[in-house]
Design a protein that fits this description.
With about 325 residues, this protein is an alpha+beta fold. It has eight helices and 17 strands. The structure holds adenosine-5'-triphosphate. Adenosine-5'-triphosphate binds next to α1. Belongs to the ABC transporter superfamily. Drug exporter-2 (TC 3.A.1.117) family.
């Protein structure tokens, strides 16, 4: 594989209409070999950022995109040596699996033997060695996405870019392919940028996650730091569930799994069960506190909580955090 390259965005902005920024001026460094996830709700600017990195989109005048020591701002996508994996696979329906993977290599006019060797290597890597001659139409969504991953990797890109690659798959396939992509990214140590609006996917795959909102990065950190030390209420809520607690000492926040329901009238918070939703491994219990606020507490699956039951809510002081 090609040596991984660092990516640097300097003052990259994008406005589609005068005065309205899809992306506010952004400075971002992506380390060589890391997987950076762009996470955020619809319309926050993730895809625009990815397209600026790929060369499919230009940033507004004054912005720069660097791949290592090279300023690639003016280069179109085909000169940037990036591989892309899209939600809709973007495969050629009239070509078979091997021909799809070989496509870019043929354009590069590589020798036939080299093309064959690379196609076989890539199909083995994505677990599709036995599918080389299949029409892509005859594949499942997950298999199609493996083909598009193999095709992206076959050209030995310096950077791998993913735009919601799992969004069209059903839950089980999504989990499996997410694991496989995670393993592959670790094994290849390629620089990757991955767009998703799914926080679990982001945490599972990202070395770091940039949480975006309204065309800006709201926080950039490792998954653990984002989860345990979110900088703002938006990040805290976007990455998992969180409760706001009005305590005598001030306003604090706490994750549902860090709280316990107890049958104890001296627990710090008291309330009544509103609803218990069983998820299998855990149950999420909504509790109406005596001050009128509603919180959620994740409880062991075998506990039984009935609507209207009086409960105490306990938590360790170190599980509380404050937000600005
Ligand atoms: N070609 C375009 N012309 C006009 N506006 C655009 C264009 N592309 C994106 N936008 C706008 O820019 C903003 C950011 O869009 P972008 O696609 O980057 O968001 P996103 O976070 O990727 O959203 P989604 O998850 O829905 O794809 C949105 O308000 C969008 O409507």
């Amino acid at each position: 594989m090609t040596d991984p390259v660092a990516i640097r965005l300097r003052h990259c902005a994008r406005s589609f209409q005068p005065g309205q920024f899809a992306l506010h001026p952004l400075d971002l460094e992506i380390k060589a070999g890391e997987t950076l996830v762009l996470l955020g709700p619809s319309g926050c600017g993730k895809t625009t950022t990815l397209r600026i990195i790929s060369g499919l989109e230009r940033c507004d005048a004054g912005g720069e995109v660097w791949f290592g020591e090279n300023n690639v701002t003016a280069l179109p996508i085909e000169k940037r040596n990036v591989g892309m994996v899209f939600q809709n696979y973007a495969l050629f329906p009239n070509l078979n699996v091997a021909q799809n993977v070989a496509y870019g290599l043929r354009i590069q006019r590589l020798p036939a033997a080299e093309i064959e060797a690379r196609v076989n290597e890539m199909l083995a890597m994505v677990d599709l060695a036995d599918f080389a001659q299949r029409p892509v139409q005859a594949l499942s969504g997950g298999q199609k996405q493996r083909v598009s991953l193999a095709r992206a990797l076959a050209a030995r890109p310096r950077v791998l870019l993913f735009d919601e690659p799992l969004a069209a798959l059903d839950a089980k396939l999504r989990d499996k392919l997410r694991e496989d992509i995670g393993q592959l990214l670790q094994q290849l140590a390629i620089t990757a940028v991955y767009v998703t609006h799914d926080q679990q996917e982001a945490m599972a795959l990202g070395d770091r996650i940039a949480v975006m909102r309204h065309g800006r990065i709201e926080q950039l950190a490792t998954p653990r730091d984002l989860y345990h030390h979110p900088a703002t209420p938006f990040v805290a809520n976007f990455i998992g569930a969180v409760n706001r607690l009005a305590l005598p000492q001030g306003e604090f926040w706490c994750r549902p799994e860090e709280m316990q329901l107890v049958d104890n009238p001296t627990a710090p918070l008291q309330g009544r069960v509103l609803l218990a939703t069983f998820f299998g491994p855990v149950q999420r219990v909504q509790v109406g506190l005596s001050n009128g606020e509603v919180i959620v507490v994740d409880c062991p699956a075998r506990q039984m909580w009935r609507p209207d039951q009086r409960v105490g809510v306990a938590f360790a002081a170190e599980s509380l955090f404050q937000l600005s």
